[in-house]
């Protein structure tokens, strides 16, 4: 089956500024593609290009196997939630939601039925008669969602649709969207700044920076095998620890020598890694630095480090130490004995370690 | 420092009151000064000719009479005809109403296109229209006369409507454009995704938002068109003159004695509609001129 969305070598410039550079993405029917990246990297611009609201400057964009170059937004069979909501200010919430159906000549009975469904789903029934100006940010955002959900398009485009909701509602809505995706098998492109949203919703994540795609992969791939230092640092919260290290290869494997303030460097041995350059950057997730009692196996190495900061965060406690001149965060259980200023023994699990070339930031396979 | 002989707060508040009253006084003087001519006009129009000749300019009428008003409306002579301002008043209505409506509607559509459908050259077109606002009336007289002649509309009411619409479009476009640029472009984008057409978006989304600026445009255009004299005198013929031209003819007709009371009444009648528009819609006028963006 043809991909729902197939973007090849897409370029987009405003005047002489290139905003998107050589974008290549395709999604299969039922895919849930999440776009992440720092503010201003071109996520909304890409959605606008997909929707046909901005002309592309180069490359091809196909939806449902059909070239979209000369197809207007209304004929692309998409629904979109805008980052700024873009609700029609003079229409009631109900009219906002049904406007698209009305324009497309859907009969009144169907309109009413769909409206009722969506209103119930989004918990906005009491608001239907109000104008957008009389709603809170979170309520507006839900209405904006509603406007997309009443449609039954080939492709949903969501631009940070949950950013303004409170934590509880956000989790509920996330589940709703996930359910929607699974039940309808709808295909989605979804922009978010929320790491958890990205991880839980996506079947495929695209990480962008400065208009260039850094990596495309499943959430697990992005999380465990980041393609470069940017992705490693950007995805995951707290971020992956990126520690400069010197390498030495001998019969036992690769020795990783890491500077430690006020003491001899610690040396970890990776029994699997081979052929590393003399200097590397070691990427280790906070959860891969644990207490000795909780982690064991042949990939686990222990070392003492001086604790600098202890941050309890409910179930976990984040403990910060300095290694290789960088602050390094470990995710320990909340019952940890670690205390600031005191040495503590950590277990470094090199099972999921990533290595990067310091100069280029690229991952070493 | 412990002993405070007087309260500075009290003193300054007394000063504030004095300042306020001083301000009111000055404003009052200006208002009186400004309203003086209107007062003279009204009182004079209610006096008989006899009383005007013998009495004081600023005194109240001893005997109120509406004869002058009746004559101004339907009996005063404009040259050889003596039908008062009535037929010309209706001419003005026939010119102003369509003129205002058409120029406002065109301004709205133009503003919508220039502000929200930024096609190539939109800015140039807008700049040219803006430039049109600054062209003095006198400059367009001859070319316009030639054009009306070519179109076969010289000396007709549709011709005058046409002239006013053309001249007004620059202003109305400016009003609507400046109003519509404050509306986020995402609104159009959302409507496009919803499947709405160019006109549908204008009709269902932009027009309902535009009440304040429509009021501004209507007041502005109505005042311009109703009060216009130059176009009226240049492009009309015997039966199609607007009320401003008729007023001039009444005041300047030299037959018999000068009837100041009739002149005044005619002038007030001619000015009444614009006054009325301001009173009815003035509130919206201020609001529309200062209206910020419409967030939603
Ligand atoms: N109409 C425009 N004209 C010129 N530049 C634009 C225009 N729209 C966006 N840009 C620029 O394009 C870049 C990408 O913008 P975009 O809105 O796509 O970012 P984003 O990734 O969605 O950011 P955020 O996460 O803050 O929403 C920005 O640098 C922005 O300044
Ligand atoms: Mg954005």
Structure description:
The complex is a heterodimer of chains A (365) and B (296). Chain A is α+β, with helices and mostly antiparallel strands. Chain A has 2 domains: 5-234, Rossmann fold; 241-356, OB fold (Dihydrolipoamide Acetyltransferase, E2P) (Beta Barrel), CATH 2.40.50. In chain A, 23% of the residues lie in helices and 36% in strands. Chain A has 8 helices and 21 strands. A 6-stranded mixed sheet of chain A has the order 6-7-8-3-9-10, sandwiched between helices. In chain A, helix 2 (93-103) packs across helix 3 (108-122), helix 2 (93-103) runs parallel beside helix 4 and helix 3 packs across helix 4 (137-149). The radius of gyration of chain A is 24 Å and the shape is elongated. The two termini of chain A are 32 Å apart. Chain B has 296 residues and is mostly helical. Chain B folds into 2 domains: 8-65, no CATH class; 86-291, MetI-like (MetI-like fold). Helices cover 74% and strands 0% of the residues of chain B. In chain B, helix 5 (122-133) crosses helix 7. The radius of gyration of chain B is 26 Å and the shape is flat. The model of chain B is unreliable at 291-296 (pLDDT under 50). The interface between A and B is medium-sized, with 28 and 19 residues. The structure holds adenosine-5'-triphosphate and magnesium ion (MG). Adenosine-5'-triphosphate binds next to helix 1 of chain A. Magnesium ion binds at residues 43-44, 83, 159 of chain A.
């Amino acid at each position: 089956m043809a991909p729902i969305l197939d973007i090849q070598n897409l370029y987009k410039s405003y005047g002489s500024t290139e905003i998107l550079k050589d974008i290549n993405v395709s999604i299969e029917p039922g895919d849930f593609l999440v776009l992440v990246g720092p503010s201003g990297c071109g996520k909304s611009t890409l959605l606008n290009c997909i929707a046909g609201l901005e002309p592309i400057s180069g490359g091809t964009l196909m939806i449902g196997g059909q070239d979209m170059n000369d197809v207007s937004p209304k004929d692309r069979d998409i629904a979109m939630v805008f980052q700024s909501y873009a609700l029609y200010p003079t229409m009631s919430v109900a009219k906002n939601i049904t406007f698209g159906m009305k324009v497309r000549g859907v009969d009144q009975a169907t309109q009413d039925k769909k409206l009722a469904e969506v209103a119930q789903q989004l918990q906005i029934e009491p608001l239907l008669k109000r104008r957008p100006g009389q709603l809170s940010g979170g309520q507006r955002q839900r209405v904006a969602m509603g406007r997309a959900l009443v449609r039954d398009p080939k492709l949903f485009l969501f631009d940070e649709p949950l950013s303004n909701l409170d934590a509880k509602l956000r989790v509920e809505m996330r589940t709703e969207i996930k359910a929607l995706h699974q039940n309808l098998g709808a295909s989605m492109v979804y922009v978010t700044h929320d790491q958890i949203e990205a991880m839980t919703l996506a079947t495929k994540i695209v990480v962008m920076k400065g208009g260039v795609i850094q990596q495309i992969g499943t959430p697990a791939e992005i999380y465990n095998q980041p393609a470069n230092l940017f992705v490693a640092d950007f995805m995951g919260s707290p971020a992956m620890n990126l520690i400069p290290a010197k390498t030495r290869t001998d019969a036992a494997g690769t020795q990783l020598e890491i500077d430690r303030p006020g003491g001899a460097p610690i040396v970890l041995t990776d029994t699997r890694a081979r052929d590393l350059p003399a200097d590397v950057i070691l990427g280790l997730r906070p959860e891969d630095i644990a207490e000795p009692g909780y982690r064991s196996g042949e990939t686990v190495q222990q070392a003492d480090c001086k604790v600098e900061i202890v941050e309890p965060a409910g179930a976990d406690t984040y403990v910060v130490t300095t290694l290789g001149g960088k602050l390094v965060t470990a995710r320990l259980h909340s019952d940890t004995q670690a205390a600031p200023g005191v040495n503590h023994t950590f277990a470094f699990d090199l099972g999921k370690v990533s290595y990067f070339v310091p100069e280029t930031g690229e991952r070493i396979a | 420092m412990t002993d405070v002989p007087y309260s500075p707060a009290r003193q300054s508040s007394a000063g504030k009151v004095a300042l306020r009253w001083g301000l009111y006084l000055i404003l009052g003087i200006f208002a009186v000064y400004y309203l003086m001519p209107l007062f003279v006009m009204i009182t004079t129009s209610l006096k008989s000719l006899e009383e005007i000749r013998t009495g004081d300019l600023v005194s109240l009428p001893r005997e109120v009479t509406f004869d002058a008003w009746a004559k101004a409306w339907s009996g005063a002579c404009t040259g050889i005809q003596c039908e008062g301002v009535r037929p010309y008043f209706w001419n003005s209505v026939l010119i102003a109403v369509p003129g205002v409506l058409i120029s406002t509607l065109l301004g709205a559509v133009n503003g919508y296109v220039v502000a929200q459908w930024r096609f190539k050259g939109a800015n140039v077109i807008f700049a040219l229209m803006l430039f049109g606002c600054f062209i003095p009336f006198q400059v367009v007289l001859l070319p316009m006369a030639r054009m009306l002649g070519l179109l076969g509309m010289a000396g007709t009411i549709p011709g005058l409507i046409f002239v006013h619409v053309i001249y007004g479009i620059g202003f109305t476009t400016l009003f609507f454009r400046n109003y519509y640029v404050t509306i986020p472009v995402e609104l159009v984008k959302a409507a496009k995704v919803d499947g709405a057409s160019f006109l549908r978006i204008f009709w269902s989304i932009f027009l309902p938002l535009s009440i304040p600026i429509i009021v501004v445009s209507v007041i502005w255009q109505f005042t311009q068109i109703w009060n216009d004299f130059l176009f009226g005198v240049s492009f009309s013929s015997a039966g199609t003159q607007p009320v401003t031209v008729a007023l001039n003819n009444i005041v300047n007709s030299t037959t018999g004695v000068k009837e100041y009371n009739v002149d005044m009444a005619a002038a007030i009648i001619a000015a009444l509609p614009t006054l009325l528009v301001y009173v009815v819609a003035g509130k919206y006028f201020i609001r529309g001129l200062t209206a910020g963006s419409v967030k939603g």
